[in-house]
Amino acid sequence: MHSIRYRDEDLQLRDGTLLKSRIWSPHGNGPWPVLLMRQPYGREIASTITYAHPSWWASKGYLVVIQDVRGQGGSEGVFSGFSQEASDTSQTHNWVRSLPECNGLLGTYGFSYQGLTQLIAEEGTPPPDCIIPAMTGLSENEHWSCEGGAFWWHLGIGWGLQLAAQKAQRESNWAAWHEIRENLESKKYLCNGHDLLKKHDPEGMAYKWLNLSTSKTPLWKTHEPLDSWLKKPLLLIGGWWDPHLKGVLDIFEKSKKAGGNPKLLIGPATHLQWWDGAQRTQLDFFDSHLKEKTKEIHFPQINIWNLTTKNWEISLQHKTPTWNLSSEGLASVSHLEGCLVPNSDLKADSEVNLVHDPWRPIPSIGGHLSDTAGEANRFKLDIRPDVAVFTSNPILKDLRLEGIPTLFLETKCDRESFDLFVALSIIPSGVKNTATQLSTGVLRIANCDRGKKSARKIRLQPILATFKAGDRLRISISGSGWPAIGINPGQKQYLCQGPSPHCLVTTISLLLSNSKLKFESLISI
Fold first, then answer.
1. pTM
2. What is the DSSP string of 91-134?
3. How confident is the model at residue 294 (pLDDT cuts 50, 70, 90)?
């Protein structure tokens, strides 16, 4: 069997900049439909951390084009992030369709940054014939850098330093490259990441987003795909433990609103670790729109993985119960004292005081924002006295929970700022010392009126899970989630970053009389 051949080729943009692409060709003479990925990490790697190698896609009868975006890899110019991509995408699509081996049909694929490059273009640009954006979003605030007003500390700093290291390598600044690498490997970046970004990539996206997250008048950018693109066949891929999942859901809703008929897959995936079968599903989608026009996709519009039954299911979007939080004040001292009471009119005027000690912050484990993304047993965290825990009685019959867990409660605090880090877990029936974390969420209160009661709303990562009879539902609340988010020092003049002598012990009062846990719809349209 002959290996798939490839070549490198340049595209000269209108401003004279040369963009470098690597093109893999199937065997034979063509012409073929094209699969295009535009990415900032080097065309040689071609996102093989999550995707099959381009030669595999080429072996299935596609001309595969992997392009280095402006200022990255072998391409000329200065890398300025998302703002550069609309014009460059439009010119690239025109060029790709003019390649002699292209039959005029174009599909796009890629995740994260490569997902956004599929969606933005200049007004009037003809859309691709089909699009598969994965794990991406349009809002630089809510989908790329922050949750609940808190900057993604581990993720944002780590990604920013990766781009800074690429910049140093491009400039042959070996001292900077080694300094960045050493700090990442030693995990010192978790404490000095802000200074490293300021030193090595002050114009980079991550450093700008970090500064915007603390600005009193943040000028966040939200990118807007063309309606004509959103109407095209669209397969959106998300992961339950991926930080961009809410961005994927947002794109789905925008496509529906524009008159499109998008498909949505949410699987058991972190940002970098996907499930078996993801490649074949995408290939089927491309084949059905770029080759076999009559072939139907083998899954419904919304196909999602059940976190507890470990099976694919159709989205049902049915109404789920609500719960109230109840405690006599010991929910943070005893992990068995606090209760979740279903559909209760309970209005007991109870209060739980939670003390956040920045010297020993509650670590973030599992979930979509931590440095150990995925499923996790948080039992050892829940038995700490600085975590308030509320657990339901055993479920009487199977209960399917689909949607966005949303917690409503009132709080008071003795500091100018504080964080609420919330986890939702299942306590499996008959299994000791286990609290399987299904979802997490965070809310940062940056300007708090000390001692004043205020209503709070915390939206967690979406889930689908079936609780069997005998299982119990749990909500856990703490004042930190380190290093998923920076430590809140309690003083607004200091940055929320690593532990420092400026971080104050903070008492957070949870007022439970109007508390409620409910599940909002996964999709609002």
1. 0.96
2. HHHHHHHHSTTEEEEEEEEEETHHHHTTT---TTPPPPSEEEEE
3. low
